[in-house]
């Protein structure tokens, strides 16, 4: 995966004595509480803030790692890295909830100790019964940890620059009680490619773990070009609003995910004043093309390799996910048509209103004329109400469904990641088999000088196999947990949105009643 | 102005005329018309097809011995209904306008009913024997080809159009013609635009129906999370169903009150237009005759002058009838529109209130359900 290539793993706590410049960044002007020591950010650790010393043109925004220090709270995210092997897992632990649970939180973790009991590789089974000690209920219980306070808003879209190089800059404001942030409230400005860059980074780091990474809003060449060119019509305003809302929801989903919230990239995104431009996100850039190629090869892979799934729960879940994606697509199409019809109703009502107004203007009978004019006004008001309702339909329902179609895609990716891990295990197992055969051949052919090499090879591959087995178990566990969390979130999300939608319907209906009540006396007054 | 000839009055009460039923046999629609006898408590019920209505209208047009007949604004007969076929929707709409949109021909029956009531309450027309026989004879007028009336519906020949803009000699009528031209055009447009609104509302109801049905497909009982999600989907489905029913009611209200009212207004303006046109034609005839008389040679002059006097008399009769008709029309039209608007507003208000109540209940239920 593209992303933070070439990044050196941040040094572990033993490098704390390394000096770092104090961060001189100035946060939002209303934040006077900035503490130079910055000790509160991480639990009990001394840490140095990030220095924005990197040259902006560098593709890799982590080029200033020299001063980028992590804490002694072990987060796998710290050492996580696309290019490196998953060997890092052997030392790090995975904490997926914010609650610093102790023993309960660790039982699922596949540390070096756990794998010791599994010496014989079982080629075709994915899950070893001994590791799955947690029932579904326990996993679910764990999810309801402490509820923290973190509110994010994306507002104030502003066009910066002119012509084809112009872009929209959005204000990202955060309000939080979490100790991991420097301040309680802070604001930064970000552009769309920054959001995409954040996704790339998180995808690179977390998807291999089996996490479900919320996908960012889609790029839109047409929409953006209109905005760049400076078309000041309602469709480009609508596009900007749609994008702003989508970016807000995207960030809210990201921080709702316990391990993503812990990711320093996320914090940096929210806090740091200036973010180096994420050029890897452009479609036709080198990394962009590479991504496309990877995606194509992934697709081919998916078709040719059938994973032997022994976990029924996961298998049925995957099927469910695929079915649901289809259903949601259909629902989205239905809501889309609803929105379009409402817009049609808007314009028809407006036209009707005008025709009634004209009738009123030529009418001689003054009371009737007045009533007709009032009627035209009522229809005008109704047009506005229809318009608002159409927006509600769209933003509350249609976007929700569209988001979830994409999220389900992310869930599928998560399953695919697991499959990749499984594949790697399979390959390692077959390589090990080959090495053993090679050794046997050598023994038979009686070539002692090559035997040592063969034995070394076997040892190497044996340890790899057991490593990959542990990885697979870990990923499987994570995937299960993630799926559960996702489903809960989904139900909650939909519930919230339905309530919101009902409220909007009710609000519109009340205003409609008022319109009619106002008109009735006018109609009665006709003599 | 009452007709001079002593014709029998209507034997049923004008207010009691109702179209109570409609049967369809292939292409033919048969209407059941009931009314109450004036001098007894007996009710009458007859069955008529559209042709019979046409016969009635023709009979009205072709009455003899009614002075100034051409000055009457004849109640407009709704156009013939095509049999219900889904792919004929647009054709039907072009022909019938609003009357095509109602369910079960409700609007259409109401329009025909109103037509009969208007004829029966017209100070001159109610005396027409044809009306009485239409309403009480058990045998339908049948295929009686009534004499073609003196005048038929206005054709759109270019010649006619030219005549229409002929300058009037009387200011009152010139004004009335101008106003009528305006209002007729505008009310036609308003009617068409309202049709568009109602059709969109019906489309919205359909779209809601699709959405609601699709939500039902999301039901899945596999595990706890799926069940929770299914419940949410079903709830949304109920809500969308409520939205759909609201649209259907709103559309129906629009149809049966404002829609019919605008349609009626539009057709009545056309009827007035036809009357004014007839008068204008008479005026042109008169002016032509005058000119001919002036140019006529001496031997023919007397005949021509006689003829001219007759035409003048006709014209003045028509004009005086027309004046009364116009005033009657103006006051009744305002009344009709007033009732239409009040009825429309009240129905829409009720529907809106009911809908708000329903949404409120749903919201309450949702909040309770989701508060844990």
Give a short overview.
The complex is a heterodimer of chains A (527) and B (372). Helix content of chain A is 58%, strand content 5%. With 527 residues, chain A is mainly α.
Describe the structure.
The complex is a heterodimer of chains A (527) and B (372). Chain A has 527 residues and is mainly alpha-helical. Chain A has helices at 76-79, 103-106, 112-115, 136-143, 192-206, 221-229, 234-256, 258-262, 264-271, 286-304, 312-362, 366-445, 448-524, and strands at 150-160, 167-176, 185-191. Chain A contains 13 helices and three strands. Chain A starts with 75 loop residues before the first helix and ends with a helix. The relative contact order of chain A is 0.11. Chain B is mostly helical. A three-stranded antiparallel sheet of chain B has the order 1-2-3. In chain B, helix 6 packs antiparallel against helix 7 (224-295) and helix 7 (224-295) runs antiparallel to helix 8 (298-370). Chains A and B meet through helix 11, helix 12 and helix 13 of A and helix 6, helix 7 and helix 8 of B.
